[in-house]
């Protein structure tokens, strides 16, 4: 075969090979183009740290906390109840257009306040926002536009009481999460005569009944963890005895507390 004929055969074989290669590659490319559109490259991911679902790229994550029960516990939020007025609380009322009606009031034991020229209004259990609404309603007959602002000037702070064999028996503010063991230290520590194994926690159930709980601090102090230590609530009373208490009922009437506490301690 001449050199020219061999060159023509080689050219023909290369053309056939290129044709076969293109016939196998292009369909795959075209098929992929049918499945993917240009807009798909701009589609946001459906998963993220906020936990938003499909199609919610512009949805903000819900806030974890809230006030006065507005939080959603299932989202990891905690409930933060707003403060509600109680007897002996001191509130200051100021009016924007009628400063002559500005006044500072104390919530009476029956839960009422005496508003200037407007009379008695029951406020116990109200939030400050609800109290503002009650004040404005009371003054609608006296002022054309009774716009008022309220400030809580003083209030009865949460407290606990420690008595018995401690260095400084008395009443203490409950400013943070506090346990019975910590309360004993705040009150000056337990004395050498204290019965560490029978510390009593008294907790009010209602106006006539008190719940009791016996705690063995001596045993707890020997353990690596104090998880059995009770956490105090406002109004709790911790009593550290000197001698062993043979028996104590789970619930006591309030007058029965006199056998454990002496008013002269405070």
Structure description:
A hairpin with a 4-residue loop joins strand 10 (199-204) and strand 11. Helices cover 21% and strands 22% of the residues. The strands form four sheets. Strands 9-8-12-10-11-13 form a six-stranded mixed β-sheet, with helices on one face. Among the domains are: 90-154, wza like domain (wza like fold, 2-Layer Sandwich), CATH 3.30.1950; 159-265, Roll (Outer membrane lipoprotein wza fold like), CATH 3.10.560.10. It is an alpha+beta fold and 266 residues long. The longest helix is centred in the N-terminal third of the chain and has 33 residues, at 3-35.
Q: Tell me the number of helical segments per DSSP (H or I, 4 or more residues long).
A: 4
Q: Would you count the extended β strands for me?
A: 13
Nearest-integer average pLDDT: 75
- Strand line-up of the largest beta sheet: 9-8-12-10-11-13
For the largest beta-sheet, the strand count, sense and barrel status come to: 6 strands, mixed
- Measured by DSSP, the beta-strand proportion falls in 15-25%
Helix content: 10-25%
> What would you report as the Rg, rounded to the nearest angstrom?
38 Å
Outline type: flat
CATH superfamily membership of the domain at 159-265: Outer membrane lipoprotein wza domain like
Unreliable segments of 5+ consecutive residues: 25-65, 72-78
Which structural class should the secondary elements be placed in? alpha+beta
CATH architecture of the domain at 159-265: Roll
Quickly name the level 1 CATH class of the domain at 159-265: Alpha Beta
| Terminal residue distance | 126 Å
CATH fold-type name of the domain at 159-265: Outer membrane lipoprotein wza fold like
Helix/strand order:
HEEEEEEHEEEHEEHEE
């Amino acid at each position: 075969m001449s050199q020219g004929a061999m060159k023509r055969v080689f050219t023909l074989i290369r053309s056939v090979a290129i044709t076969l290669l293109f016939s196998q590659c292009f369909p795959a490319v075209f098929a992929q183009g049918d499945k993917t559109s240009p807009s798909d490259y701009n589609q946001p991911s459906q998963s993220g740290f906020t936990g938003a679902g499909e199609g919610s790229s512009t949805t903000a994550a819900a806030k974890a906390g809230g006030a006065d029960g507005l939080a959603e516990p299932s989202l990891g939020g905690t409930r933060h109840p707003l403060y509600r007025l109680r007897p002996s609380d001191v509130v200051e009322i100021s009016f924007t257009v009628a400063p002559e009606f500005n006044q500072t009031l104390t919530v009476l034991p029956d839960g009422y306040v005496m508003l200037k020229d407007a009379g008695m209004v029951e406020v116990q259990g109200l939030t400050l926002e609800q109290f503002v609404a009650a004040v404005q309603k009371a003054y609608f007959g006296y002022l054309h536009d009774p716009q008022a602002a309220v400030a809580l000037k003083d209030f009865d702070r949460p407290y606990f009481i420690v008595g018995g064999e401690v260095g400084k028996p008395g009443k203490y503010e409950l400013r943070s999460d506090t346990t019975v063991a910590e309360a004993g230290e705040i009150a000056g520590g337990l004395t050498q005569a204290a019965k560490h194994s029978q510390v009593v926690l008294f907790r009010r159930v209602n106006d006539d009944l008190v719940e009791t709980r016996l705690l063995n601090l001596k045993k707890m102090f020997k353990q690596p963890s104090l998880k059995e230590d009770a956490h105090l609530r406002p109004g709790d009373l911790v009593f550290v005895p000197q001698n062993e208490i043979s028996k104590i009922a789970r619930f006591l009437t309030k007058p029965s507390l006199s056998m454990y506490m002496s008013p002269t301690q405070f």
